[in-house]
Amino acid sequence: MHTAGIDVGSTQxxxxxxxxxxxxxxxxxxxxxxxxxxxxxxxxxxACAGAGIxxxxxxxxxxxGYGRFRVAAGDDQVTExxxxxxxxxxxxxxxxxxxxxxxxxxxxxxxxxxxxxxDFCMNDKCAAGTGRFLAASAxxxxxxxxxxxxxxxxxxxxxxxxxxxxxxxxxxxxxxLSRGRRREDILAGVHRAIAGRSASLIRRVGDEPALTFTxxxxxxxxxxxxxxxxxGRRINVSADSQYIGALGAAIFAxxxxxxxxxxxxxxxxxx
Length: 271
Ligand code: ADP
Fold this sequence. Notes:
CATH class of the largest domain: Alpha Beta
Number of helices: 8
Helix content: 40-55%
Oligomer: single chain
Distance between the termini: 28 Å
CATH superfamily of the largest domain: ATPase, nucleotide binding domain
Shape: elongated
CATH architecture of the largest domain: 2-Layer Sandwich
Order of helices and strands: EEEHEEHEEEHHHHEHH
Bound molecules: adenosine-5'-diphosphate
Radius of gyration: 20 Å
């Protein structure tokens, strides 16, 4: 039996396929783009290919993320907050606080020992301090978003970036470059600025260890280091950080498929 979770984010769409033992068998990832339905279908196909099955063999699919209601294969929908909580608690059972930095928003979520959401807050008004801000910084320097984290770790001089606004960061970076500042020092400042903003969101929900960092930006080692420096402790990070929402959705799908099977069995057993 296989189930799937599809996380249609504002920037990237992710899919995880689980087997009956709850093990990840396949993953799919692509840019969301303008055609949300197509993005959902394609990541499911990718993840099924990885699992060695056809999409029609998936028993139950849960959609999450901002485009969750447009997942054609979706049997049900769960909010991304619930799915990140579930996925993080599965990979790191000691999780009490989650920091999720995605393409266009940042969320802090506090969860109970049982993985249930207790509180959350997010900066959804603009893309300040999110993946979009990092992408804009990378763009100004002519770098790929995957290059800026490792480069920031080579910084030797502490430099303060005052702007977390995606629109104004470009001129601030150009200004620093024209003053002869090194790219790695500027980037370390950019990462520290986001870590500072994230730390205030975390404080708002109550910073309880252990903290698990989720979302695509958790793939950036410079960001992990900046958050750890800011909080003054180690945090949980998985190689599957960007798939944690999709993983949570696939776990909900598994539970719903099993509950449906039990219900049908009980109805069949009735005289
Ligand atoms: P959303 O769900 O909001 O679409 P994600 O959690 O999928 O967002 O994260 C997308 C963001 O993750 C991108 O904007 C990008 O900045 C960042 N990202 C993705 N892959 C990498 C990578 N390899 N290294 C650094 N950052 C990455």
